[in-house]
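Per reviewer request, we include the raw input and output of the structure prediction for the construct analysed in the revised manuscript.
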Amino acid sequence: MVLWQKSLDREEALEHMVEEDTDNDGFVSWEEYLKQMFSFNTEELQNLEDSIRDAEEMTEEMRDNAGTLKMVKEDRRKFQGADLDKDGKLSKEEYVAFFFPQNFPYMHKYELETYLEEKDKNHDGMISLEEFLPGEGNVEADKAAQTNFEDLDKNGDKQLSLDELKTYIVPDVDEIAEEEAIHLIEIADADKDDKLSFEEIAAKTKEFVGNSLTDYGRSLHEEL
């Protein structure tokens, strides 16, 4: 199922790549991505950065633009990380890694850096419980987050390092898929032979279709 999911991820990423490869050369440059995703070219982006930096007072529009610039910065960092040969553009394989970084271990650090930049308010390189909480005033959500925090805090120092955060930000998809596969076999294996026949899968179509983790169900339903 892991291979199935990664195949679906690759297919989805390459569909997006076709849209962003505006010169049809088989690669996506940063300029192409920037224009397609944010409707800016690099000169316009620089002008926007300059206007925000030099503004005496921030307007609502400027705040919105500042948020956009933050997303551009995060995507730029991830783009550069995916660009393994450093030629300034992404090949098909590089683009898939850019689009689905969780599937590529060498991209995990960029996901972690993005999370840390967003959450680490005091810039100490760690995440405290206060920084980890959703902060939306939802008591139940805060309780769930606190439980997650305590589970992740392996050394009990009341803060989370990047190593401790890794399983939360970029969980092991192979491990998750294995757990999901075991679960699906348990509920569908009517004759308890540890194998699934076509008939057993068909009898539990609803459970497979509802499997949001692997997306296996959607494809299976289309075939059935």
